[in-house]
Amino acid sequence: MRVETDGALKPLQPLRTAMTAESERSTDRLETDRAADPENDRPGASEPERDNQSVAARVVVSYPADLSDWGRFQVEKPSFRAFLRKTRDSARVGDVWEEFVGVGCCGNTLDVPLRVERVDGGARIDDSTTIEYAVREACGIEGSWRVQSKGGPSRA
Fold it and tell me: Which terminus of the chain has fewer CB atoms gathered within 10 Å of its CB, N or C?
């Protein structure tokens, strides 16, 4: 029961949809955003770039060359790849995802800028999408265990 503004109790309306573990992720907002994006109509845009409904078979994501061994270990874990598949609805070449990859021994966080380098197939990411990595130019990320030390990351 719920209370209306006139103080009378009225029955709740029945729930029309239920989300379950098997429910598909909604891409309505994504489709609206992408349809309004002039980048999608640029000359030379390939069909997979325009196709939001098709699933990406493979997404190649790059991380900076100066990412520490520990940072690389974190992003290349199967669990982190699964995290990306669950948290990203779509990928487009040039997208940059700032991702938290872990907390060091003293509580400092490491956020890594991942950049989408290639998308094979459609734009939509699901559980069947393969996530692969490439290394790109360094960006001064300075992520290592020295981030937490008095010496600081620039002196590692």
Answer: N
pLDDT of residue 141: 79
- Dihedral pair phi/psi, residue 92, rounded to 5°: -140, 140
User: Residue 142, class by beta-carbon neighbours within 10 Å (0-12 exposed, 13-18 middle, 19+ buried)?
Assistant: middle
Dump pLDDT digits (tens) for 50-73: 466 799 999 999 999 988 888 888
Judge whether 132 lies within some domain.
Answer: yes
pTM of the model: 0.58
Rounded-to-integer distance, Cα 102 and Cα 109, Å: 6
Q: HSE on the CB side for 5, CA within 13 Å?
A: 0
Residue 20 placed within a domain: no
Give the CATH number, domain containing residue 87: 3.10.330.10
H or E stretch including 84? helix 78-87
Closest of 148, 151, 155 to residue 70, by C-alpha: 148
pLDDT at position 32: 41
